[in-house]
Amino acid sequence: MEPLLVSCRAVAETVRYQGPTIASVSTNDTVVRCGAVTAPPPLITLTGTFTPFSTTRGVASAAQTCTVSATDLVAPLLLTAPEGYEISNGGTYSDTLSLSPSCGNLAATTISVRIADYAPAANPLAGNLTASSAGAATRSLALTGTVTTNGNAWISARPSALTGFITQTNT
Hints:
Number of strands: 11
Structural class: mainly beta
Number of helices: 0
Helix content: under 10%
Low-confidence stretches: 1-26
Mean pLDDT: 80
Distance between the termini: 86 Å
Strand content: 35-45%
Shape: elongated
Largest sheet: 5 strands, mixed
Radius of gyration: 24 Å
Order of helices and strands: EEEEEEEEEEE
Strand order of the largest sheet: 4-11-10-6-8
């Protein structure tokens, strides 16, 4: 007979036992194997290569993509875009994105990255897209781009960051 191989998952720890053959087990038998169990450290993979982004102030740039995946996570994975950039996994663009793992793992997920329409005119507009989670080494990808002006005066505000204001138009 083949040896008994038991594999189970509990609280982000994988327990494996390969012991002697058990010929028969009745409902009154208890089989216990004690020992230290060490969960593997969380591992984040962030892959992609970006060409320099380019746009005009007030207009979001074309998006480029990268892929993130992870194993053995014990908390959600947080993606953070640098100032002037925003990210999405198919929904609304934002400067941060939280992805929840399933049983500690995050399947390969495509992330879209672009220069935001509220980005300041800067040459270059540079920073790192980062992926982090509790206990895992932070991963990053470099972003660089340019935002040019058309010579017009420009005021930019992010409505989600403003409170206590009343909006009036055409007055």
